[in-house]
Amino acid sequence: MVTWRTTVLGQSAIGRVQARWAARAGIERIISTLARHTETPDVDDPMAVVRDLEFDWTGTLESGSWDIRHVAEGEEFRGPLDLHSRMNVNSITKLQLGELPEMSIDTVDSILDWRDEDEEVQGIGAERSFYEGRDLGYVPRNAPFKSITELELVAGAWPEYVRGEDWNLNNRLDGNEDDGENATPEDDADGRLDTGWAGYLTARSTESPLGRSGFPKILLTDTDDTELMEITGVDEAQAGALMAFAETANGVMGPLLSVDLGELVGQPAQNTGSSRGRSTGRTSRNSGGSGDDGVAALDTEQLKAIFAECTMTDFSGPDRIPGKVNLNTAGPEVLTLIFDNDPAVAESILALRQSRAEGITSIVDLLEVRRIDPELLSTVADQLDVTGWVYSISSRGISPTGQEIEIHAVVDRSTLPVKIIEYRED
Question: Are 397 and 406 in contact, with CB atoms under 8 Å apart?
Fold first, then answer.
């Protein structure tokens, strides 16, 4: 009997080891695919990385297999979760926060108070004195959130709001998350995962200094006209105007989508004799500008090159830049939040990306969507991109004897080599 029990325990231990390394093999497979797409990206096909990651969702070794899935907005998908399908809690606006389910005005203000640098209370929010007065043992960070679980420290941000039914935040529907009131958390046992605010928000997504080509982005405040002309196809006057606009107090990329370049720098646009209309979606407020000294309006291909390879963000500092929302992976609920809570716009964006195998190749493509006002697009442009840099991987390893081990990892490919920035085993 003792020998039999020892044998069973030994087989169980071996099974757990096999399952663990199978799960880790799945993580490494995803990292390898992400590294390849970062080093040699397909410039014209942002969806290539999504398709390859979906292909990697399962694999078999001699000692086991792995299974990688995730849930987004109630639907299950194969492969890892692109965290850029969610809004970054460090850059989301007050109005957008207020549209989250179960979100109150005082909690919105408290979230903003937690991440801002000062001790001034916003509206009916909470700063240091509130937390000290309740002897909670901590005070606001007064800096960007490090993780979505940190949100639970904020006054009014209860765990059931942040996590929903996804109690272990693994982005998968586990047994205890679909059994009603039998085990924590309480859920409605409907076969769908309610991910709470964590389904809309992340603190992990980050901007990359790399352009769509895989080379470092051109900082418009630190370049020359020769480099700009070579990379983006602009002429000398346009290059000079881009650099001049980047140096202004309002130097952000968004206005390029709604106003002609010459207008932005106070120089009359050249009169080309043609009407742009919705072909670019942009307008010029100048009715009579012409001549050799003017700045020609940027055409669609020039705009795409500028948004793909240029930036007005300085990446030389130590702080991570909050990530943008990936138009090719964001769901309808997140897109609705971004575009003034208009579900019709979200559906139009989904229709556009589903109509093309390569998806949306540039934010400039949104100018083709008639429901989107170019002025609105220019105001939210700094929240949007067409690729993701940070992924959440929930890899479940299964041994030949049926034992399971799950590894959850968050990986960042914004620079090479790909980094594991969060790791836990369940």
Answer: yes
In one letter, which amino acid is 147? S
71: nearest Cα among 225, 176, 191: 191
Angle of the 225-232 helix axis to the 236-246 helix axis, nearest 10: 110
Please give the share of the chain, as a percent, with pLDDT higher than 70: 92
- The first and second tokens of residue 41, run together, are 């990206």
The answer to whether 371 touches 348, Cβ cutoff 8 Å, is: yes
If asked whether residues 100 and 191 sit together in one domain, one would say yes
What 225-231 contacts at long range (C-beta under 8 Å, 24+ apart), as own/partner pairs, is 228/310, 231/305, 231/309, 231/310
Buried-state track 231-259, b at ≥16 Cβ within 10 A, e below 16: bbebeebbbbbbbbbbeeeebbbbbbbbb
Instruction: Judge whether 119 and 142 are in contact, CB under 8 Å.
Output: yes
Query: Which structural domain, as residue segments, surrounds residue 259?
Result: 218-311
* Among the listed residues 367, 400, 212, 355, the one whose alpha carbon sits nearest the alpha carbon of residue 277: 367
Structure tokens given for 108: 């919105």
Instruction: Please name the residues in contact with 371: beta carbons below 8 A apart, sequence gap of 6 or more.
Output: 342, 344, 345, 348
Number of domains in the chain: 3
CB atoms within 10 A of CB 371: 14
Q: What is the CA radius of gyration of the chain?
A: 24
- The CATH number of whichever domain residue 165 belongs to comes to 1.10.40
Residues 21 and 44 in one domain: yes
Q: Residue 76 domain-assigned?
A: yes
Residue from 156, 157, 176, 151 nearest 166 by CA: 176
Same domain assignment for residues 189 and 293: no
Residue 337 φ then ψ, to 5°: -60, -45
**What is the per-residue pLDDT across 104-144, written as a single tens digit (0 to 9) for each?**
999 999 999 999 999 999 999 999 999 999 999 999 999 99
Q: How many residues does the chain have?
A: 426
Do 277 and 341 fall into the same domain? no
pLDDT above 60 (res 274): no
CA–CA distance, 315 with 325 (Å, rounded to integer): 18
Residue 289: predicted pLDDT: 41
Q: What is the pLDDT of residues 47-76, one digit of tens each?
A: 999 999 999 999 999 999 999 999 998 899
225-232 helix and 300-309 helix, angle to the nearest 10 degrees? 110
CB 296 within 8 A of CB 270: yes
Same domain for 98 and 14, yes or no, is: no
Angle among Cα 393, 399, 402 to the nearest 5 degrees reads 105
